[in-house]
UniProtKB/TrEMBL annotation:
Species of the source: Streptomyces aureoversilis
Transmembrane segments: none
Residue span, HTH luxR-type domain: 149-214
Taxonomic lineage from the root: Bacteria, Bacillati, Actinomycetota, Actinomycetes, Kitasatosporales
Record-linked CDD domains: LuxR_C_like (cd06170)
Key words, A-Z: DNA-binding, Transcription, Transcription regulation
The name this protein goes by in its record: Response regulator transcription factor
């Protein structure tokens, strides 16, 4: 039996693409929406069985506040978070807010569907490998985010940093070009260079990496000083 669901994501195209794929698999999609600020109101009013909630920044404070509201007003709604591979705090924050599952945003549609079915059945829907990765990071913590953010920031030109900021704010190529006063083709080239330098395959991954490493905070604080260069002896 198909699931009655909603897809909410800051990126409307992603929400609509996922909704279309799930419709083709026999599920009833009540809505596919992008207004993250009004996500809770929308879900509460429609009362689906499952809400797929997409986020690029699972560790950001307050990002899971809509889940708290949904579970308070519609406790029967199972919320499954779709996001990048998060820090352990990201997974913990999702479940602490009341989520029933966490699925990687690049998971195949079959994996998303399995998570939906498990969540509707009242089970925790999270990939054991994802949990194992979280525990591994807890036991072997990575470098401090600020250090990684500073390193990545030095790879980008000032214009590429501006492009990354706009990408993280959800702007598409047309909006980036208009905001920076450049041609869409030039904006597209800048975006591709940013993705290449950061070693990611999509804008969503770039935004998630920037948020996770503190790169955007570094960019807002100003240029990172380079180590002093020694002159000729």
């Amino acid at each position: 039996m198909g699931v009655r669901l909603m897809v909410v994501d800051d990126h409307r195209l992603l929400a609509e693409a996922l909704a279309s794929a799930l419709k083709l698999r026999g599920h009833r999609v009540l809505a596919a929406a992008a207004p993250s600020a009004g996500a809770a109101d929308l879900v509460v009013s429609r009362a689906p069985e499952v809400c797929l909630l997409g986020t690029a920044t699972p560790a950001e404070p307050g990002v899971f506040d809509p889940i708290v509201r949904i579970k308070r007003d519609r406790p029967q709604v199972a919320v499954v978070v779709l996001g990048p591979v998060p820090s352990p705090l990201g997974i913990a924050a999702a479940f602490a807010a009341g989520a029933s599952g966490y699925v990687r945003h690049n998971e195949r549609i079959e994996g998303v569907e399995r998570a939906m079915m498990k969540a509707r059945a009242g089970e925790a829907a999270v990939d054991p490998q994802l949990l194992q990765g979280a525990f591994t990071e807890l036991l072997n913590p990575a470098a401090q985010p600020d250090d990684e953010g500073a390193r990545l920031l030095q790879l980008l030109t000032p214009r590429e940093v501006e492009v990354l900021v706009r990408v993280a704010e959800g702007e598409d190529t047309r909006l980036i070009a208009a905001g920076m006063g450049i041609a869409p083709s030039t904006a597209r080239t800048h975006v591709q260079r940013v993705l290449m330098k950061l070693g990611v395959g999509s804008r969503l991954e770039a935004a998630a990496l920037a948020a996770r490493t503190g790169l955007l905070d570094r960019a807002a604080a100003g240029p990172v000083p380079l180590p002093p260069q020694r002159g000729p002896a």
